[in-house]
Amino acid sequence: MGNRMYVWIAVGLAAGAALSLVIPGLDLGFGIAIGTAVGVACGARPRPGPAARSGNRGSGGREASALTPPSDRQNVSSGSPYEPSIGFSRAVRVGNQVFVSGTAPVWPDGHVSPDPVAQAERCWEIALAALAEAGGAPHHVVRTRQFITDRSHQQAASAVHGRLFGDIRPASTMVVVPGLLDARWLLEVELDAVIA
Prior knowledge:
- The relative contact order is 0.17.
- This protein is α+β, with helices and mostly antiparallel strands.
- The chain has helices spanning 50-53, 64-67, 82-87, 116-133, 154-165; strands spanning 5-12, 18-21, 28-35, 40-46, 73-76, 91-94, 97-103, 141-148, 171-176, 187-194.
- Helix 4 packs parallel to helix 5.
């Protein structure tokens, strides 16, 4: 019983919303995170048994830790009009870790360049500005993700990524997806960092 697993599923449909559901009496709990890119990822982590969880209940029988953010949490906003309505932050820092949400190539006036190189540069400009606001720098980046809408954008996305991270060499993933939230977006990026 102590080796139960918590299964999470990430489905990219809308910017940064997240849901989680733990089903009492079942050996599996399920969580769903909705991000800005279209894609699916699955994973599992150990979930404590009932004895370990029983003393940590908030109202309605839910675990208190799921309701109370860590005291060292810092939310970073980019000013996106979607942040309050969808309920996400451009970046979140907890302790020495920073997680930057899916970042699209939108200029302040709403303009989106049709050029994939310009879009990649704009995405990383926004993501790295959020990282800086959370106290990080490019050399703190440990993982990047790029979502491109067509294989033909791979070279542009790779060239910009290589220029920014060639000496840093974070773990990285590039995924071709059928589309993003706005049809003008050819790519979107995310990053994770550890500030030492």
